[in-house]
Request: fold
Amino acid sequence: MTLREIRRPAHAGTFYPARKDALIEAIENSFLHPHGPGKLPVRGGEHRHSIGYVVPHAGYMYSGPVAAHAYYDLAHRKKPDVIVIIGPNHNGIGLGAAVYKGDAWETPLGVIDVEKDVAKLVVEYSQFFSFDNEAHMYEHSLEVQVPFIQYIYGNVPIVPITIYVQTLEVARDLGTTLAKIHEEHGIDMVVLASTDFNHYEPHDVTVEKDQLAISKIIALDDAGLYQELERYNITMCGPVGVAALINYALKTVSPKPILLKHATSGDITGEKDWVVGYASIKFPAQSE
Reply:
């Protein structure tokens, strides 16, 4: 019998609770929070109304209510064939553009399978991406998405991708790769681009900077997004995943994205001198 290679949780007990019951409570509190949707999601949609979302990745107590807006909307979508999760590599460990090669990921809610065939296609079609599990060992930006996914869908297959090389060239390559997989293989995928927005400035400054970045995302302007980040020193940590999602949307001729929720950690905690910005943004499917 072949043993399965499973990534164990690295951040249970820090970014989110380590006990199953406490984790479910934290997720549901995110939905019910005043800055969340205000109600629990109703699962079981029949339509493909979205192709992806921008989602934050801080601890649940900070960004959970904002992330809940994306997952509330996702719950009303029919279950996809695969969810591709793209996040920045905060630690700089492993390869700069890394696809997870193992069999599954584990959280306190159980085990979720990796869609290995789609992962292989990403590596095959891309110019930059390779298999590398080391880059995923300690990265939180993908891990914090998984319990929300499990809460909504249970064991839907995922493809975890982490990126240290935050260039527009890499983003466009990945977006084109995902579009090719969708078109050539008929795979219904949801792409989650995991990022936080401006970091560690006063609330008013962060809101202003975040709005500049969000406006470029809504306009599906990947080059404009990178220009705004550089021009105004907007410390968004996962622009490459967002730009990849923009390019995936452009290649699949999807409508303009919709801002579901923007807030800062200061909105959640009340401490507004030194905040991080968060946003949930929906990328609709053609049919919507």
The radius of gyration is 17 Å. Residues 28-284 form a domain with the Protocatechuate 4,5-dioxygenase; Chain B fold (CATH 3.40.830.10).
